[in-house]
Amino acid sequence: MDLNSSHLSNSSYSQELTEDPHLVATVELPAPDTSPMTTSELGNHQAQRNHSSLVQKADALRHILEQHRQERQLVILQDFPDPDALSSAWTYQLIAQEYEIHCDIVYAGTLSHQENIALVKLTGLPAQRWTAQAAKSKDLSMYTGCALIDNQGTTSQLLSVVQESGIPITAIIDHHSFQGDLKAEFVDLRPTVRATATIFTQYLQAGLLKLDSSVPQHIKCATALMHGLRSDTDRLMQAQEEDFLAAAYLSRFYDAQLLNAILQANRSKRVMDVIERSLKNRMVQNNFSIAGVGYLRYDDRDAIPQAADFLVTEENVHTAVVYGIVHDEDEELEIVVGSLRTTKLTLDPDEFIKEAFGQDSHGRFFGGGRTSAGGFEIPIGFLSGYIETSEYAKKKWEVFDAQIKQKLLRLVNPKDNPIQTE
């Protein structure tokens, strides 16, 4: 029966009962249940609401993809994509293929973390590096839309190029806190979720793509998702119920040996050198470890978060911040890059970084975060470029090092003066 067509208003229903006295005598309306729900019933009720919300999100994405059938899209990652971003983008690409949408996964930076390199090489993950300069010379007219996965455009040099080309944003899917006012046809932002890989696994569970263990590409993608979920939940130690449920689903399809091979990738000598620098230069105040590591090559940028991961394991340290000036010789670009790691439950990395470094002239924050981790990128601007002498390079670093420490210590030690002058 069509409930919509047969629905009666309260007034017409009352009138019908009044006109038939026999019906009034025999029909009893059930009294509302005012008894309080048990804890178990409340949990089941919340689970049903969550499931309903997930189904609605999956249906909304399905509807958007159906509208763009047989088109071509760009999937834009942050400049230095991590396993969560890479695996989620690959999943989006495979889901879009179900609607005959061809997707190119692109990032402007580089893969320098040994596990990221191993992930791409061992799985054949189809991500391409497009520098911002190279993107400007490409014919982008073939693309009718783009998707931002595990980011909201604030950590990608490619978004401005894409927007200048007039390409609309089809989807934004991310687990970080709200970063800026972007318009998109489909938006799924869930800061309470530990990994974007969890969101995409839920899409798979909702039927947007049926994984098949006999399809090698599906096995590799499931392995990548498991790696992304694992890395963003600190080996599942920070995982919540929905992350565990996603991992349980992926366990039917992923390749444990392949994942182990990815995780066994060795640290490079350059990464070890940056970790050594962070140990040498660190200052510890109020259980915060703060370390500037000087200049780094663009290809070694991922050594910074690895150094932060290492410093936060020190006894009596609950939060570590590591930063350096990353130099891109190809683009003649320099940028201050930093990472934060914390084990303190009451410290929100997103709020801390936004309060410490603020916004640029366009109102976009220089950084943000999620539970237990965050990052920031601050363009050097006019002072960026070729360094003629080691003395000039040293002075330049000292200025930025002092400025960053001042902004951080203003929050760590609000009553202290972090800049000591003679």
Which strand order does the major sheet show? 3-2-1-4-5-6
Q: In the CATH hierarchy, what is the class of the largest domain?
A: Alpha Beta
CATH superfamily name of the largest domain? Answer: inorganic pyrophosphatase (n-terminal core)
Number of domains: 2
Indicate the CATH topology of the largest domain: inorganic pyrophosphatase (n-terminal core)
Broad shape: globular
Number of helices: 16
How many strands? 12
Radius of gyration: 26 Å
The computed structural class is alpha/beta
Main beta sheet strand tally, sense and closure = 6 strands, parallel
Proportion of residues in extended strands: 15-25%
Examine the secondary-structure arrangement and name the CATH architecture of the largest domain.
Alpha-Beta Complex
Portion of residues within helices? 40-55%
The stretches of 5 or more residues where confidence is low (pLDDT under 50) are 1-34, 417-422
Please give the alpha-carbon distance between the first and last residues: 85 Å
Provide the succession of SSEs: HHHHEHEHEHEHEEHHHHHEEHEEHEEH
Average pLDDT across residues? 85
Biased composition (Polar residues): 35-52
Protein name: Exopolyphosphatase-like protein
InterPro entries: DHH_sf (IPR038763), Oligoribo/pAp-PDE_c-di-AMP_PDE (IPR051319)
Region (Disordered): 30-52
